[in-house]
C-alpha cells in the first residue's frame, strides 16, 4: 500500500510540475525512483536503467495528456514543431542503447550535472535574449493562437536537426522527455512565443518518449507494475498542470522547481564522488 501511495504522489506531482512549465516530469521521476528503489529498497528490482525506461513509458501518457490539453487552447504548433522530430526521434532511440552502460555512480554523476545545468537554465531563461542570427526570411514560420494573434519566428532546418539530435540522445539516455531543453531551445534559438513553446514542447515529449520507450522496452528496462500506477496518476496530474498553466503565473513554480533540481543535482554529484 505504501508503494502505491508513493507512486501516485510521484506520478501526480511530477506531471503537474512538468506540464506546467513544459518539461514533462521525467526529470523528477527518474532520480526519485532510483532514490527509493536503489538506495532505500522501497521499490523492488529498480536499477538506473529500469528507472529510465519506466519514466520513458510514463512520459508517453504525460506528453499525450498535456498535448491534448494544449491543442484545445491552440498552444501547440503542430506543423512547425514537427520539423524538430527529424533529429529528436533518432537521437532518442540511440540514447536508449547508450543508457545500458550507466552504473549507479555514473548515473548519479551525469544526471546530477544535467540537473544542475537545467536549474541554471531555469534561473537565466528570462534574462537570455532570443538569438537573431537565424532570423532569415526563408526560415520564417507563422502561427495564429487562440486569440487570433499572429506570431513570426524562424526555424532553420539544419540547426533544428543538429540541436534536437543532441536533445534526443539526452532524452533516451536519461528518460526525461527532453522538454527541459526543448522549451529553452524554442524560446532562445527559434524565438517561439512562450505559451506556444510550452505546448509544442509537450508534443515533442510525447513523440520522443514513444521512440525512447521502444528502445527501452526491447531491452527489458520497464517495470510495468510501477509504470501502470504512475501512468494513471501522471495522466491526471498533467491535466491539472495544463489548467493551472492558464490561471496561474508559473514564475513561482519555476523558482521552486529550479531550487529542487539544483539541490538534487548537487546531492547526486556529491554522492557519486564519495
TrEMBL record:
Keywords: Cell membrane, Membrane, Transmembrane, Transmembrane helix. The keyword Cell cycle does not apply. It holds the Pfam family TauE. GO terms for cellular component: plasma membrane. It comes from the Bacteria. It is found in: Cell membrane; Membrane. It is a multi-pass membrane protein. The chain crosses the membrane at residues 7-30, 50-71, 83-101, 107-124, 158-182, 188-210, 222-240, 252-270. The keyword Hydrolase does not apply. Belongs to the 4-toluene sulfonate uptake permease (TSUP) (TC 2.A.102) family. This is Probable membrane transporter protein.
Amino acid at each position: 500500500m505504501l508503494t502505491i501511495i508513493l507512486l501516485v504522489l510521484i506520478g501526480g506531482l511530477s506531471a503537474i510540475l512538468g506540464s506546467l512549465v513544459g518539461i514533462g516530469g521525467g526529470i523528477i521521476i527518474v532520480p526519485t525512483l532510483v532514490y527509493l528503489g536503489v538506495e532505500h529498497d522501497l521499490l523492488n528490482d529498480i536499477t538506473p536503467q529500469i528507472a529510465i525506461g519506466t519514466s520513458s513509458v510514463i512520459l508517453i501518457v504525460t506528453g499525450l495528456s498535456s498535448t491534448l490539453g494544449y491543442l484545445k487552447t491552440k498552444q501547440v504548433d503542430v506543423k512547425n514543431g514537427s520539423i524538430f522530430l527529424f533529429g529528436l526521434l533518432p537521437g532518442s532511440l540511440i540514447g536508449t542503447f547508450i543508457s545500458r552502460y550507466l552504473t549507479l555512480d555514473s548515473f548519479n554523476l551525469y544526471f546530477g550535472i544535467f540537473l544542475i545545468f537545467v536549474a541554471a537554465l531555469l534561473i537565466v531563461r528570462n534574462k537570455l535574449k532570443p538569438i537573431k542570427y537565424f532570423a532569415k526570411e526563408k526560415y520564417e514560420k507563422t502561427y495564429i493562437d487562440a486569440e487570433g494573434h499572429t506570431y513570426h519566428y524562424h526555424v532553420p532546418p539544419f540547426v533544428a536537426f543538429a540541436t534536437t539530435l543532441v536533445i534526443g540522445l539526452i532524452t533516451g539516455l536519461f528518460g526525461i522527455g527532453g522538454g527541459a531543453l526543448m522549451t529553452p531551445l524554442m524560446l532562445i534559438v527559434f524565438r517561439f512565443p512562450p505559451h506556444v513553446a510550452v505546448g509544442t514542447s509537450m508534443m515533442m515529449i510525447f513523440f520522443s518518449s514513444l521512440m525512447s520507450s521502444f528502445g527501452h522496452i526491447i531491452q527489458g528496462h520497464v517495470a510495468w507494475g510501477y509504470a501502470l500506477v504512475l501512468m494513471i496518476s501522471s495522466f491526471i496530474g498533467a491535466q491539472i498542470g495544463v489548467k493551472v498553466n492558464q490561471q496561474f503565473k508559473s514564475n513561482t513554480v519555476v523558482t521552486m522547481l529550479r531550487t529542487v533540481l539544483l539541490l538534487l543535482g548537487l546531492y547526486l554529484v556529491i554522492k557519486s564522488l564519495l
